[in-house]
Structure formats: structure tokens, C-alpha cells
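This part of the workshop introduces the protein records we will be handling. A record pairs a protein's sequence with a compact description of its fold. Comparing a sequence with its C-alpha cells is the quickest way to learn the format. The record below serves as our worked example for the rest of this section:
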Amino acid sequence: MMRSAGYTLVTSFPSVRCLVFHPQHRYLSKFTASYSIKSKRLYCCGQHHTLHKTAPMVVAKYSPPRFSIAPMMEWTDCHYRQLARLISKHAWLYTEMLAAETIVYQKDNLDRFLAFPEEQHPIVLQIGGNNLENIAKATQLANAYGYDEINLNCGCPSPRVVGHGCFGVRLMLDPKFVGEAMSVIAANTDVPVTVKCRIGVDDHDSYNELCDFIYKVSSSSPTKHFIIHSRKALLNGISPAENRTIPPLKYEYYYGLVRDFPDLQFTINGGINSVEEVNAALREGAHGVMVGRAAYHNPWQVLKHVDSEVYGAPITDLTRRQVLEKYQEYADSVLGQHGNNRPNVRDIVKPMLNLFHSEPRNGIWKRNVDAAFKHCKTVKQLFDETLPVIPDYVLDSPIAKLPPSRDDIFANVQERIPPPYISSEHELKIQYA
């Protein structure tokens, strides 16, 4: 929330448009804003108002984001996040990307998109968009739900997003706008703001161009944390799935950023599939690691070691039977809560279908679950009918030893880091004039 009485204006960068909502009257005020690197504060003023917002003070009530689960469209919904939290108490969770326009236009139905159980903290809301006014409104509407951070998507290569929507990874080509957007988000929330991006777009894929993006966004906004997907995006001719495999991983770009921007925090993302690989990245100097599809397709094997191996917590005797029992209580409590029979049994059970990945009789269980969707009215009924085919030793075995992983995917990465970045202050001043 923001209050304007008694504040003063200080400027250090050329002004950008800032949108701030009054918390009681819900009106939109237009301000000019700037960001001071020295004081780490955002300043806004209007014709008859002065306003000053300091950078958010973060209380260390959660473990740092050394491990996080990537935002994934149609996958990291509230139900998957509940499963993930039952397995790991310390992993940072992300929502699916929500378009700012969705939040604004669904303001009378926000629980469906933004509500989550208290135990899902720490949790980050990821939003997407290219309209500053809607980004401001969406941020303000989301405040009531108590997210721990707000992240702007600058990395999605989906044609629906970068084409018709004209945001996602396409925003990397306009760092000035991204800086404005991050200032707008920060001006309308009291939690930290972050950016998730790729290492480049099409032919704009040099290390210096990536550094220019990081420099311009961080120096024109309060953004101090970037999540870096270590592949570039190709906008024409390939699918989102191919964009996750065809462009080569360049972890050396990530570690170059860690070296060249010591005042910023960076989380590495892309091609990391196990806790062993997470720890390998951390040993090389990563501030944090984000895992995506591996955590969805194999949640038990990937997430069960996070607390002990990444955060140093004691190993627990948690079993999959216990996870199922706790999840069933949650599941049946939220059935139909949004009306029109949504979420239904199929919606809620969907994340559980990977809980027995590679285990005996997993395929039979999935086929039985698919048949049970046609008549089961509760998740308890479905579990009671289908789980007997899973062997007891699978259901009741506690967390086992860390499984073997691939060879060190970060071997020799330090030798491949590009030469240090040197920004052209004169060029940047011209571009921001």
C-alpha cells in the first residue's frame, strides 16, 4: 500500500510513467517516477501529490530461494503447488503466469486465480503484460492475497504470448519498458519484485546484449533479482517445446552475470533436473536454482531431497501414503468451491498422476484413475478405489538416498565465461534521453 502525505521527491534518473492506486478509493493517479541506485528508493510525484516509497524491507521468515519450482502454464496451479509443499517445506513456489488483463477483468472472481492456502508460502506471483495501467491494477488487486514476491515474465516464447499478446520474451527487446513496468509493480506493492528472462532473443543473443538488458532494468527500477533461463528464445518457426531444447544451454552466461553484477541476485534455470545438479550449480556460485518440468513429471524423486540436501534440514520419514492422506483432505475441501463444479475431481487429481513415476504398477494405477474420473464424486472415493494396486512398500517407503545423477553439467563452466561486461555510460544516457 502507498500513502502520499508528507513525502518528498528526489530524482536521479529521467522520469518514467508510474501508476499508483489509492488503497481505499481505487482511483488511478498518474505520477512521474525515478529510481535512485544510491538510496535504492522509488520516487513518484503527481501534480498535487508527492510520494516516496522505500525499497521493501523483507523479513527473513522463510528460507532464501536456493531452490524454486518454475512457473509453468496449466501445470503449477494451486493443486500442484499444494502437492509440492507437502513434499518440500522450503522450496519456493511460483504460480502459473497470469496475464495482467486476466486479473483486471476478473476482479469479481479473483479467488479462482489468486487464492491459495496459507501453507504454500513462500510463493511468488508471476504476471505478464505490456500495458502499464493494467500491470498497476493487477498488482494492486493481488496485494490482498499476500504473495511473497511479484515476478514479471520476460521469458515465455509461446506464440500466443509473444505474438498476439506481444509480451513474454519479446519484452527483452525493450528493456526501457521493462524498467518502467518493474517500477510500476514496485510502486503498487510492498513485496520484492523480480524478472524472469532468457539469455537472448533471436539474433540478439550476445553476452553484452544480455548484460545491457540486466543493467538497464536494474538501474531504472528496484529490480535486484533476475531468474535466468540459460537458453535464448527463437520467436519464429519453432514451438515452445522446441524452444526448451533446440537453443543450446549457455550456463557460462549466467555465471558471467554473477561475476559482473555483484550487487544483484541471480537464479539459474534450464536443463537442471535433480537435486544433485542443483547442488552442483550452487557449488559453482549460483545464488539460487529453479527447476521446471522435472519437478512436475517426477515430484517425489525431485522434491523429496530438497529440504535436507539443499537447505540442510533433518531427513524426515515422510512417505507417499502420508502425502496422499494430507492431499486428500485438502482436495475434498476445495471441490467445487468456484462454482460450476470447478475444480472437479479430475482437476485436483491431475498433479498426483506423476507421484509414482517409474514405480511398479504405475501404468495400471493411471488407467484405473482415468476410469474412476467418470463416476467418483470425491478424491477420497477415487483414492480408495484405485490405490490398492500400488504395492505397500511403494506407498510406505520413506525418503530414500539421493539417486545418482548425470555427470557434472557445469564442468569447466568457469573456463567458458565471456569477458567482463563493460557498459557504455554515454550510449545508455542517449537511449534513456
